[in-house]
Every structure is written in structure tokens, then in C-alpha cells.
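[job 0412] stage=fold_complex status=start
inputs:
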Amino acid sequence: MNKLNAGCLAALLLVSISQPAAAKTTTIAAGEGAQERLQEALILAEPGDVVTLGAGRFLLTDGLSLDVDGVVLRGAGMDQTVLDFTAQQGSGEGLLVTSDKVTLRDFAIENPKGDGVKSKGADDIVYYRIRVTWTNGPAATNGAYGIYPVESTGILIDGAKVSGASDAGIYVGQSRRITIRNSIAEANVAGIEIENSRDALVEGNLATRNTGGILVFDLPSLPVMGGGNVIVRSNLVVANDTPNFAPPGNIVAGVRRGTGVLVMANDGVLVEGNVLADNPTAHVMVVAYTQEFTDTRYNPFPRNVVVKQNSFGRGGYDPQLDGKDALLAAFGGALPSVMWDGLQQADTGLTVTKGVTGWSLNLPEVGKGMAGAQPAPLAVPEPTFTFAFDTVGAPANLEQRLAQ
Amino acid sequence: MITRWIFGAGLGAALAVMASANGPVERVNQAKVMDGGLVRSLSEYGFFADAGLQQPSAGVIPYRLNTPLYSDGAEKLRFVYLPPRTRAISQGDDLLDLPVGTALIKTFAFGSGADRRLVETRVLLHRTEGWVALPYLWNAAGTEAMLVVAGARVDVTTPKGEEISYRVPNKNQCKECHGVNGVVTPIGPKARNLSQEWLRQFVQAGHLDSVPVGSDVLPLWESRKSASSEAAARAYLDVNCAHCHRPGATASNSGLDLRWEQRDPQAIGIGKRPVAAGRGAGGLLFDIVPGKPADSILLYRMQSTEGGVAMPELGKTTVDQDGVAVVRHWIEGL
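[job 0412] stage=fold_complex status=done
writing structure:
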């Protein structure tokens, strides 16, 4: 055996050792007893197994759950394999994942009573070409989140499609190392939402017909604090003009119809290279959290928000803002692209590249509403803030699972 | 020869021998508890001398909780089994530290007297690798229960006469309630929710090192009217909600912590805004508004039967009107 062959053999051995001993594939077809057959397959799966869903409509009465590491749940395509929860009786979501290194791909979830897919404490998860749809269109009675990873490290969402969520289509909360890309969020209250999370890349998505397109913010009183280092680039954020249909009481119920990108109470957010058009309130809105809070860990200000070159089309022509008519008159019929409330901490609030137009409410104090507002064109410095690009986005090894 | 031996020895003795050989098992099969994998039938464990009557085998000890979890009004028969020569360790008012080899057994039944029907038995087994939760569904005759890892739905009539599709949880759903920091753990046998008398007997039987400090403080549910409204409500929320609504558990991301020992008003929901409640918030702004139960999301969700709104999400289909009354009374007085 020559050296080359020995090297190959060693490599082969390495591969066989690193793979689970006997990964198996179980195929589940739609039809009678799908609930029990599919749930049983998800429970009895061993780490590394593949559970394949046949084409067709799976009629389900209860939420499904997966708690085994390294399982691939794979359908025949987001238009071919449909997990139909229209008759769901129990559970808070369609599918719950609580294990690590799971891959979900090529299937759809329709009409879950609560959330679509929730993955909690599920590190290194891949969502690939997953569709979550509430088929009746926007309605307050729809579930809150379509795709809902929370309290996790390592999240890759690629090629997803979510519509009708009464909160956020794609929501990532209290997590780190996140990529959301090439996905479509349409007719949700919030298209894509990054909440209390760090190191997120939101790239190449289409957000349209939502109330707000892409939201990045922190909320108080949550276990995980300190969101930031978020890159929002090369997205198509157009015509987010659906009236807010969130149930009152939820934070997104306060999102103004016609918001493109909203940044609130976050540290280090870059908005660059996006196409923003036909967002009637504002293409980019940067604001402080205005409600009362007691959480001493919480910082209500947006810090180090950077808006660089984007393609700003028509926008700000029908803002859902107090004093709309006066504002429109003052700014010549449409508001400039970037709206800021003017609230900041130690001059770290907002910087924009030369040529980006905006306006500020110039509010004097947090939590005092519009009192004292002195709207005026935006006058902020050019960006100098440095983002930690090396830690932004999902770990590279999650990519490899897309090819399998 | 066998015939002669039977007649010679007397029928009674013979029947006793036959019973031990072929009839109901009277000893717990420790191997099944410790290392049986997915044990397919409940009878294999030998927890019951008479399964249909729920008469436990030797060493399987019945217990009750002061304030129980609501499960659509099901009667619940709870048992604990410890291997011979092992004992649990007290941990203050919290969970008893139960040794490897322990089994916790809980049977759910509807109907009373001769009409009592066993629906399911859930077992928690303390194996070397940790606790394992398994659900068993009883047959119609009430003679055997079989493992249902995927759970089941069963039509039952509740004590209040409601016809419901009762949900037997699947194996993962067991963990949704029993999981803390990703590990399955018991919920019920916390010292604060066990009677002093029972704990004393447990110590006397050699199954526990000492009666824990802080035991028996949760009010007896049937005597809740003599307890303070706060104690009754906080006990109810601890037992019915806090297995998920606590750090490290299924609903940790909500920031709501309903454990008995939690003293921060905001953490238990007073003036706390919802996070991911969606339409579950019912258009209300805060989990608990002092003095205003009708404005409190927590009570709104307790009173719903709708998926995506109703709380708890698992383990019940109907509204617990007694629980609602206790929590409402407490919020009114805040």
C-alpha cells in the first residue's frame, strides 16, 4: 500500500468513525394514523437518523415534537409535503424541536394553532426550504410565529417562506450566531424579527406586505439580554403596507404600518445594500424603547446603528404617525428615508453614510411620548463603528448540511 | 402427580402457589426499572399486585400531594418505589433526592366505584443514565396498559360531565413538563407539597434520611379556603405552571417564573408584559394586573380551551374552574 492509499484509508476511517454507527432512514407516508406514525418515528429515531416525509397532506390533530440530536426531518418539497394542522387540538406549536444539530427541510406547515415550528435550546439547527402558511391570510386569530428558534446558538434559516403570522414570520429570540437568508416573509405583522440576540446576519431576503419588514430589538425582563452585532444587508424590503393585525398587548402591535427596517434598543446594527421601496411610514426607523421597565440589565437606547448605502425608493408618503399632515407638508410630501426619534446615550445612537437622507423627532427624553418633539432633517456623523464580522452569522459547518 | 399434590396440600395453598407463579406479580422487577429500555407493558414492572384495583406490590408506596396538578378532573393514584436498602435524601422544601432505581408511578382514572376506568399510567424511572418518562395506555378491560410512545387520544367523560378527547401525552411531551436544563426530572414529590405524616412514615420505613425542613407548607387543596388566598394561589401556580414557567424549563424564554419560592413581583407576572404570547395575550397588556383579574393575561389563558391560547398547553383539555377561582381571588386582593 503506497502512502497515498494509506492516507485515503485513514481519511475513510476517520469519516466512518465520525458518522453514527448505523444511521437509518425511516419513511413516513401521509394517510391514516399519520399523527402516531410520524410522532413515533420522531421519538424512536437515533442520533444521525433521517426521517423522510412522503409527498401529500398529513392531517394532524396534535403538535409534533423532536428531542433527538442530529436528526434530519425531510419532506419532498415545501409544496409537496404539507403538515396540515387545521384540525389541531393541543400544543402550542405545530412542531417543537428541543435537540441539537437538527435539520428540517423541504416541507410545509399549514394553519398551526399557535406557532409553526419552534426550536428551543436547539443548537446548530438548519431550517432549509421550510414553508409556514396560515392559508386564510393575515388575521389576529393566526398563530404568533412561523419559524421560531429561541435560546439557541447556531441557527441557519435558508429558503424559508412564511406568511400570515400574527406576530413575526421568522422570529429569532435570545439566541446567538444566526443567519436568515434567501427567505420570503410576506403578510405577517413583522416579516423577520431578531430579538435579544447577537451575531445575526439577515441577508438576501424578501420582506413584503408585512406591517413591518425587518425588526431588530431588545426587550426587558427576558432571561437573555444584550442583543447586537446584527447585519441587515442585501434584502428586498418593499411594500410593507399591511395594517397591523397583531393582537393588542404584543410588542409588535405597536409597529407602524409601512415600516421597512425597525431598530430599537440594540447595540451595533448595520443596514446596508438593501432595496427599500414603497414603505409608507419609513424605510428605516431607529427608536428607543418607550415603555416602563424595572430590569436593571436593560438598555432602552439604540446604540451604534449604522445606515450605509441602500437603494431607497419611494417611501414615507403615508406615515402612520401623529401629526402626519404637518410632517408631510414640512418635508415636501414624503418623509426622508431614515427616521430617528433622536434619543441616544452618549452620542452612540445613529450614524449614516453621506448622502443618506433622514429626519429626527429630536425627542428630549425617553418615555415621554411625542412631548417636546422638534422634527428636523437628520444631522448625524458618518459611521466609524466597527462590526465584529467574524462572529456574525451561523457557524460555517451548518452550510454543509444543505448539500446532503 | 401435580393433581395429587394440589389435592393433598389443600386448595387454598395451591391457589396461592399458582397465583405467585401465574397470577399477578407481587414483586417489582428491578431489572425492568433499571435497564429495561422501552418496556412495552406496565405489568412487566410488577408495580401492582392487582393492577385493575391499583393495589400496589410490596415496596410500592402510595402517596398524595397537598395541592395536585389539574388533569381534567382525573382521579390520580400516585405511587413511589425505592429499591431495597436504598433511601432518599431530604433537600429542604424541594424535591426529594430519590436514588437510582426509584420508580414514580401515576395512574389517571375517570369514573368512580365499579365504573372507575383506568385511562393511563405514567411512569418515571430513575435509571443510571437519568430519569426516563414513559406513558402507558390501559386497555378497555382495565387489565393491562401498553406503552404508547406517540401518545393517544381517548374519549372520556369528566367528573363535571364534559365529554372530551383526553390527551395521553407522548414521550417527548412528558419531557416538555418534566425537563429542566434538558434533563428529565420529577415534579411532584417536593417536600413542601408532601404531608409531614407521610414523610415521617417514609423515614420510619427507612426510605428517607429525615423529614425535610420546609415540608408540608403548600395548603391541602380541599382545605384551601382556610389557607390565605396568596398561599392557595401561589401553591396552585407552582404545581400547575412552574414546571414550565421557571428558569431552565420549557417556558423559560417567557421570563415568567411561577415557582413557589420566587418573590420578585415582576417575575411572577405582576406588571409584566407578554413576550411571545401572540394572540394568547387576548388583547391584554400584563400577565397580572393587581385587583383586576379580568385584565390579567394569566387568568385569561387559564380560562381558555383554545389551542395556542389555553394554559397549561399540555395535560389538560378543560378549564379548571376551582383553580381559576383561587387565582382570581388572589389577584382581586392584590
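[job 0412] summary: Chain B has two domains: 25-217, 219-334.
[job 0412] exit 0
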